[in-house]
Amino acid sequence: MELPVNNFRKMLRAGQQQIGLWCTLSSPYGIELLAGSGYEWLLLDTEHSPSDVTNVLAQLQAVAPYPVSAIVRPAWNDPVLIKRYLDIGAQTLLIPYVQNAEEARQAVRSINYPSTGGVRGVSALTRASRFGRVSNYAKTCQDELCLLVQIETLEALDNLEAIAAVEGVDGIFIGPGDLAASMGHLGEPGNPAVVAKIEDAIQRLKKCGKPAGILTGDEAFAQRCMSLGTTFTAVGVDVGLLARSTSQLRQRFGV
Length: 255
What we know:
The chain has helices spanning 7-14, 28-35, 53-63, 79-87, 101-111, 137-140, 154-158, 160-164, 176-182, 192-208, 219-228, 238-251, and strands at 18-23, 41-45, 69-73, 92-95, 146-151, 171-174, 212-215, 230-237.
């Protein structure tokens, strides 16, 4: 049995634009509905959702038949959590709140086995290896794993080039919400000062030759970020889309 190809990683390395959707509903039924919507990637969030490893397993199974890549965001840069998501078949991870190069290197170590300088524990009978049916999984899986790190503070922006230079980091995602908070603009990701920092970071990453990503529900700003150089761009959150559309429908029928 062959190791599944990581199409997200393949397109990321080719510099192709991939439009994504943030998913926090934590439901395999809901994620299957979204999987057919035409996005290139769906982010399965466990940092700001009630989801856990068991939920994500069911979501990965629900998404598998569809032509969309699943990215998992663990709740923290924790080698135990990372190991568990890799073992259930996640091939691309987004690690939150990476502040400096050493924290980025920690994330890299977490997805690597000891033979390549990592700390990932070894188990031959996991969903990732198709329960042992993928020959030489431990020696070949790294070819299809993709590591994204999330920068979301002024400290991380100060260390941007150093983080980007860490071998094994495939892309850097800019988190507008926490960045705004770290700048004293809590709840204001569209504040001009925050926007200026984001735009500068995207251009700096482009100079480094490192793929950049972002999440924004502002369509005009999403287009602006893409023009500056983001190549994995999330343009909405499932919960927000559902909440707004259901409220707007009700409002159209008056009191």
